[in-house]
Amino acid sequence: MWHRPSGDDAPRRQTTLSGMAERSAKSTSYPSPSGGSGPARAIGEPANLGRRFIALMIDWILCLLVSRLFVGSVSEGWAPLVVLIVEYTFFIGLFAQTPGMKLTGVRCVSVFTGGAPGIPRTLLRALLLSIVIPCLIMDDQRRGLHDRAAGTIVTGTPATGGPTAG
């Protein structure tokens, strides 16, 4: 049975509407990738829609090939979709990129940390993506409803190396 301590040694919490609003704003807000200061610069600019679409097509072709190994025919419409959900959940959750994203130079990162979003978030993102409608409704940062719900953003891959000035 849960017991609440009483007396002078019991911690007292005073919850006010303004305190709850402050905590809520802190937990739901995130840095804008296009301006501002702080972690926003580490996340990067939103990825080009053309590169995102090409990455999705590459991943879809891979899903068709993989699902054919398990089902034997791509006429089973659910099989490639299940493979896509598993692929997106695993690769984005752990590595922030699917094979298609790697080839096109985009990645899907957490808006809170700038790193891989983790399995639970990307499972939610993949399930919503499979419905199609959430990804068609985008905000000014090119984040679909599936990205907003999962707390993710698709950005360009950061440059690693390259020519140096001098």
Automatic annotation (TrEMBL):
Residues 1-41 are annotated as: Disordered. Pfam families: RDD. It comes from the Bacteria. Residues 1-12 have a biased composition (Basic and acidic residues). Residues 47-151 form the RDD domain. It is found in: Cell membrane. Keywords: Cell membrane, Membrane, Transmembrane, Transmembrane helix. The chain crosses the membrane at residues 53-71, 78-98, 118-138. It is a multi-pass membrane protein. InterPro entries: Pra-immunoreactive (IPR051791), RDD (IPR010432). This is RDD domain-containing protein.
